[in-house]
UniProtKB/TrEMBL annotation:
Keywords: Membrane, Transmembrane, Transmembrane helix. The chain crosses the membrane at residues 12-33, 39-56, 90-117, 123-141, 153-175, 187-206, 238-258, 285-309, 330-349, 355-374, 395-416. Coiled coil: none annotated. The keyword Transmembrane applies. The keyword Transmembrane helix applies. This is Divalent metal cation transporter.
Length: 418
């Protein structure tokens, strides 16, 4: 057995590191909230956009794994090698999405905690506590311990979701009602803002590709075992497949159980609807179990975001100003700064959290073509033997044109409506 195959076997059996971290980051707002909203609003027709977003973003996420495994460097370093004029806009965009992501992920986790255990405590206050706990766990180095628990809970949530979908299908009356209820078309112009917002974080923002490269690099440094192309590809594809399957299942749950009802803006109603998607199919007894799993899933997403955004910004600032590379507290300082700004955003954004989610995810989608173009440029610098296959290159070109075209159409429609 070759060393490459042996490395793949060992990786596949003992750890699915950055790939499952990516799944943990993705299976949060995009799945629990946006996929269920898409199903509730547009039914099975929205499945087209779930598949398109996942398929056409695939090459750019894969490039993050590929580049780090091939070079031992991360994509932030690659952007810096291209020039400051490419890295600086990336960092500015990341700063904006970091604040919004911290706010949205923490608030949804807080909603679930409030609904299940602490109804008398403000969701905004609980959001701050969620961010503080995440920062504390990272600061004291409990990442590996927390990672094992959250991965287990994501698996439990996956099992519960599969069970809920199967039982909803078996419960023919509920399925027939959901199917018979007329729903607006997701292909109409009126649906465009939501569809763009939906695809912005489906399965995640494209900055996730940079996080993957940082995680692959860190994992190789910590383990002393460099990633091969085969093991990196296996790790990535397992994690990505899980995110795609669960996105489809959450859309199915929204279609069959919410039946055209919008997810509420108020914390108690939102959490009740989310848990209700499962209890409608499985039974009321499942509420505590599903609630804990859902909290674990969104909390792991929040934890991953709290780790990844400051890690990315610290790496970028270090590339721009080398003395900052020797400042180990830079990442912690950035975490506290972003958390503080996120709390201010939650206090100021009183129009409702659905509008906040849509705003942040629309920004993510409009920024996606720039990230995609950067990743295409970076992967072209690899030696010939480490280049992606021609079909993947063509796939990336198609994905870039899709993201760019959709973004331009959306911006054009919004400009006309001003």
């Amino acid at each position: 057995m070759s060393s490459a195959v042996e490395a793949l076997r060992k990786r596949s059996l003992t750890q699915l590191g950055p790939g499952l971290l990516m799944a943990g980051a993705a299976i949060g707002v995009s799945h629990l909230v946006q996929s269920t909203r898409a199903g509730a609003l547009y039914g099975w027709g929205a499945l087209v956009f779930v598949l398109l977003a996942n398929l056409l973003k695939y090459p750019f996420y894969e490039y993050g794994h590929r580049y780090a495994a091939a070079t031992g460097n991360n994509l932030v370093q690659a952007y810096r090698q291209m020039g400051r004029r490419y890295l600086v806009p990336f960092l500015l965009l990341n700063s904006v999405t970091a604040v919004g992501s911290f706010a949205v992920d923490a608030f949804i986790a807080a909603m679930l905690v409030q609904y299940l255990w602490l109804p008398q405590v403000s969701a905004t206050l609980l959001s701050g506590l969620v961010l503080l706990v995440c920062w504390g766990l990272i600061a004291v180095g409990r990442y590996r311990w927390f990672e094992r628990i959250t991965k287990s809970c994501v698996i439990l949530l996956s099992v519960a979701t599969v069970a809920a979908v199967v039982m909803a299908v078996v419960a023919q009356p509920a399925f027939e009602i959901a199917s018979a209820t007329p729903k607006p078309s997701p292909f109409s112009w009126s649906a465009l803002p939501f569809i763009v917002a939906f695809m912005g974080w489906m399965p995640g923002g494209l900055e996730l590709s940079v996080w993957q490269s940082l995680w692959v690099q860190s994992d190789a440094e910590d383990s002393g075992q460099p990633w091969t192309a085969e093991s990196a590809s296996f790790d990535f594809n397992v994690g990505y497949s899980l995110t795609v399957i669960l996105a489809c299942l959450f859309l199915a749950l929204g279609t069959m159980t919410l039946q055209g009802r919008l997810l509420a803006d108020t914390p108690a109603e939102f959490a009740g609807q989310l848990i209700g998607m499962y209890t409608t199919s499985i039974g009321e007894w499942a509420a505590p179990v599903v609630g804990v799993c859902a909290i674990a899933a969104i909390f792991s997403t929040t934890f991953t975001v709290v780790d990844a955004f400051p890690r990315t910004l610290a790496a970028g600032l270090g590339e721009l100003y080398s003395p900052l590379q020797k400042q180990p507290q830079l990442k912690n300082g950035l975490t506290l700064l972003i958390s503080s700004l996120a709390m201010l955003l939650l206090v100021a954004f009183s129009a409702g959290f659905n509008l906040l989610i849509d705003t942040i995810t629309i920004i993510a989608f409009v920024a996606a073509p720039y990230y995609a173009w950067l990743n295409i440029r970076c992967i072209q610098t690899l030696p010939d033997e480490q280049q992606p296959r021609p079909w993947l290159v063509r796939w990336a070109t198609l994905g870039f044109l899709y993201l760019l075209g959709f973004s331009l159409v959306f911006l054009g429609v919004e400009f006309i409506q001003l």
